[in-house]
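Structure (tokenized):
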């Protein structure tokens, strides 16, 4: 049976659970976004060609 005097506590417990789940999900998304930004930054950097050995005249 529902008891009106327990509503505040159960409501607060659900709110805390939702806040924790949201914070976890937001953190995961932030980490994924940073990973993608780092990957894209690496792809944008120009590659440095390896120096070729000097050719000797024949």
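Design, position by position:
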């Amino acid at each position: 049976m529902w008891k009106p005097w327990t509503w505040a506590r159960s409501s607060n417990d659900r709110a805390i659970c939702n806040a924790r789940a949201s914070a976890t999900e937001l953190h995961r998304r932030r980490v994924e976004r940073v990973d993608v930004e780092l990957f894209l930054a690496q792809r944008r950097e120009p590659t440095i060609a390896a120096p070729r050995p000097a050719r000797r005249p024949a």
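Reviewer-requested clarification: Residues 34 and 55 are 45 Å apart (CA to CA). The mean pLDDT is 87.
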